[in-house]
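EI: anyone free to look at a 126-residue chain?
SC: sure, send it
EI:
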Amino acid sequence: MAKNEVQLQGDEWLEEEEGQLAIDAYQDEDSIFIKAPIAGVHIDDLEIAITDEIVSIKGTRKNDTELARENYFVQECYWGSFMRSYILPVSVDAGKAEARLRDGILTITIPKQEKTKTRVLKVQAD
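SC: here you go
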């Protein structure tokens, strides 16, 4: 695992093993949705793995500008490998999951299994 230089602090570069990916995870009645901003990541540099319990997103953001360290004032953008796993709170149908990348936002849609969908019961009076 390569280390990535992330920011000059004084005269020292801080190093980081692997970047963390920020996500939003939410649901509606039928599906779980995971959104992640991944601007600058080519679709071929992205891998998504889904089981019935976990979603894992891995990727690499490549910096196409080669500059010497001394030319940077600050380097806050993360370049390099990133990874994020999220434990799903309900049972899903991983085989029917879909992923889309639009305007730098990755959206993963995972249908819930039929047994985990919320069902509202109407109370009957005797």
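EI: The radius of gyration is 20 Å.
SC: 👍
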